[in-house]
């Protein structure tokens, strides 16, 4: 009969142990997995990026329902184990019990809550699991919300940066004199503090928390020195303690953690323990690499293979996007130690190596961390560095001469160099797997070797190994990058602009590590649009990043002249307007006048220097720009509708004019053309437009995602609404959804196909709250967009655009 | 008078006349010269004519040391006037010198006189 294995705790260690177990002997055990959280194993160290909005929870799940099913694991999530009965070999929960032959305790750790008054108030939380993250995200949505983070260690700072990124006012209270004192020396701690303060995070060191204040819920934090920081939430991140209660109650040997031997076995031979809840040779571990080692050893022990856990050196990296920080080993000062320090204040770089007997004992790198792995490798191996002492601090590339090519540095690494610190994967293993198993992508490598599958900071190295091994056949970009200036795709860029609250093109390029100094003609207009769309009130439009047509509000022609199209609302005009156009054509000697496909009049062949004067004349007659040049609302084409047509069911002309007056001036990812037809005969050709309306007796049928250009495509039906007001609200919400999600230059029909027509219908037709929210955001952005660019320029704005800088006359030849 | 060969430096305006990552035009007889200012305040001058279809380079987007032509997106080096990437061709370049804020443009000797119409300092 199959032995019964019960695992208590569904964290990172137990998930990894089960993987190793099923790999070794898939049928050895009948496994039951208990987890206190109502969900399965996920990558807890990636909660910070989830909190920062850079990843979704789905992206950090390590084992899903399919995996448990495939391995016949009985999952009992949300069920807390309360007791172990070692005599009967059962574990008990509130809902029942489970018998075991072997038991693995992987209860992890509990956040340490400092024992001050008010610690139980609602709003005081830890940063430990997804529920904490969700609570923090919800708190950050309130405008001007304030957070106090107690604890300036790894976890506290990641939480602080993420909350700040979500727009909260954040104060970090830290008991010690400098941040992350266990990993950083004071100098690096100072640089880190400066960086975080520059982001608007307030840091209070040597802060002794006296009490948490509040009646119904938390309102403020009081320090011993009398300082009071108001707070909507308080995040406790002062440390963790091993969660050992059930082991203690069961009479197992417990000190700080559950005491285990080299085989991860507790004082009861049938009970193993792994992860943050254990103590091995008087050490408790909190970083992921040793926990994974424990998982491997425990899996071996369960199938009676020999393996032993050995204490390991660990290295730390802070997961705050934009901050590079690496720390490993021991860097305390002592008489028999020497140090090598490199500071480059202008580049914000600080590097410090601590040596003893010509061997690296510790390394702290700030600002430039690419050599961290190399130093750590030598640290672990005890490499004698006397030959390269002089240049050691300049890193690996320097040793081989002037190698600046990162590929060369990776190529030069020995096969046993560790690439992935979290999972202990060395270069040889990765290259072997790529070649041996025919791996072609980062995901393949992660699936087969686990390299870069945890914290992800070695992703770059793994990608370099892929291209080193596969050469040109390796295509790293599963998503198409925006352009050659970045590896990020449009979706990533848009998400990061919001998550990191980036509000200028230089900020985007800096924070998202653009490869060029000022972008290119592809990415700059895209970034400019994304920023205009996301921060309508705060972003200062960068005209030099707009295509010439949007810069001068006219369409450039093949000979360098321009065409001008005044707005005619809904395609309706008058004798006065036509007369004004005729006068302008005569006055400026405009060579061509043409009626456009969108029911407008186009004047072609205007010299650039004449544009402001042309606009001034047109403005006098009441015209505004027709935006015929814009990635924005172009035209709403209409038929004459119930006013004149014997078949007309509704006032299609009136609705078209109303839509156009409401929406003109808005910028969109690509041009938007609309039409309103007064009956299903559809004379305005609404069913091949980006958005179209077909009026019927019972109301207004809204259509979207049509195309009649490079591609020809009939529209999809969004739905039927009763009134004009509803039609306007639905159309505006739809366009706002597209404004927020579309890739630059992606027309509505491509965007809608990408995200799914049903999803659009669900959000716009079925979800009234969401529709209203889209509508309100559009209305807000229009406050800043509905300014007629023509009258602005006729009054002198940007006049440098329209005049020569100088005119030099020819000298008469002698 | 003897015909001179060489260059004549002509003042055309000041650095502030040109927006960063932008361009202004200088007319010299039939020719239009586009004067570019980069994000790090370097100044370059090219004939305002893309080697592809004669598009006005002065109207393009300026990025790093290049301008992208507004007509068909050819990318032209501001320094050499050569088309970048797979495209081939080049446009004439003119030497430019900054004297403090003043921009001087080098023209072949005898092709220009002093400024007839003064610069626009808008």
From TrEMBL, chain A:
Keywords per UniProt: 2Fe-2S, 4Fe-4S, FAD, Flavoprotein, Heme, Iron, Iron-sulfur, Metal-binding, Nitrate assimilation, Oxidoreductase
GO MF, any single term: metal ion binding
Domain Nitrite/Sulfite reductase ferredoxin-like: 557-620
Pathway given in the UniProt record: Nitrogen metabolism; nitrate reduction (assimilation)
Cofactor note as given: Binds 1 siroheme per subunit.
Keyword Iron-sulfur recorded: yes
Pfam families: Fer2_BFD, NIR_SIR, NIR_SIR_ferr, Pyr_redox_2, Rubredoxin_C
Names of required cofactors: [2Fe-2S] cluster; siroheme; FAD; [4Fe-4S] cluster
Superkingdom as given in the UniProt entry: Bacteria
Limits of the NADH-rubredoxin oxidoreductase C-terminal domain: 315-382
Domain BFD-like [2Fe-2S]-binding: 419-466, 482-531
Amino acids binding siroheme: 683
Annotated Nitrite/sulphite reductase 4Fe-4S domain residues: 630-769
Binding positions ([4Fe-4S] cluster): 639, 645, 679, 683
InterPro entries: BFD-like_2Fe2S-bd_dom (IPR007419), BFD-like_2Fe2S-bd_dom_sf (IPR041854), FAD/NAD-bd_sf (IPR036188), FAD/NAD-binding_dom (IPR023753), FAD/NAD-linked_Rdtase_dimer_sf (IPR016156), NasD-like (IPR052034), NiRdtase/SiRdtase_haem-b_fer (IPR005117), Nit/Sulf_reduc_fer-like_dom_sf (IPR036136)
All copies of domain FAD/NAD(P)-binding, residue ranges: 4-280
GO terms classed as biological process: nitrate assimilation
Keyword Transit peptide part of the UniProt annotation: no
Family: Belongs to the nitrite and sulfite reductase 4Fe-4S domain family.
Annotated protein name in UniProt: Nitrite reductase (NAD(P)H) large subunit
Species whose genome carries this gene: Nitratireductor indicus C115
TrEMBL record, chain B:
SUPFAM superfamilies: ISP domain
CDD domains from the UniProt entry: Rieske_NirD_small_Bacillus
Gene3D superfamilies (alphabetical): Rieske [2Fe-2S] iron-sulphur domain (2.102.10.10)
Keyword terms of this UniProt record: 2Fe-2S, Iron, Iron-sulfur, Metal-binding, Nitrate assimilation, Oxidoreductase
Ranges in a coiled coil: none
Signal sequence bounds: none
One annotated GO molecular function: nitrite reductase [NAD(P)H] activity
GO BP term, pick one: nitrate assimilation
The keyword Ubl conjugation belongs to this UniProt entry's keyword annotation: no
Rieske domain segment(s): 9-105
InterPro entries on file: Rieske-like_NirD, Rieske_2Fe-2S, Rieske_2Fe-2S_sf
Domain of life: Bacteria
Protein name as it appears in the record: Nitrite reductase (NAD(P)H) small subunit
Organism, as annotated: Nitratireductor indicus C115
